[in-house]
Amino acid sequence: MITLDELTNGQSACIVDCTGDDEITMRLMELGFLPGESVERVGQSPFGDPIEFRLNGCRYSLRKSEAKRIITKGLEPVRKGC
User: Fold this and answer.
1) DSSP E strand stretches across the chain
2) Cα–Cα dist 19/52, whole Å
3) Which of 2, 36, 43, 49 is the most exposed place for a label (fewest CB within 10 A)?
4) What is the rounded average pLDDT for all residues in the chain?
5) Which of 14, 4, 22, 6 has the alpha carbon at shortest distance from 60?
């Protein structure tokens, strides 16, 4: 298992868990970063932070510290669902 920030551009994975119990974790879950969802890393800024992800047809930019909260499994071709 790896965290979301460890994906490389173009790789996708299945979300297993969002760690933490604070407002940031709750907001990530409200945005759709939920267990069972497929997420793809799209790119990053020139200095590596923030990182851009595609989830459910939307693009989100997360700080590395936020992406580290999301545990994923498997690096698979982009597909709907896990």
Assistant:
1) 2-3, 12-18, 38-44, 51-55, 58-62, 70-76
2) 19
3) 36
4) 89
5) 4
d(CA 12, CA 61): 15
Q: Give the Å distances, CA to CA, from 24 to 47, 62, 70, 78, 81.
A: 23, 11, 11, 26, 24
pLDDT in tens, 41-54: 999 888 878 999 99
The three-state secondary structure class of 36 is: coil
Separation between Cα atoms, residue 64 and residue 57, nearest integer Å: 21
3-state secondary structure of 55: strand
> How many residues belong to the chain?
82
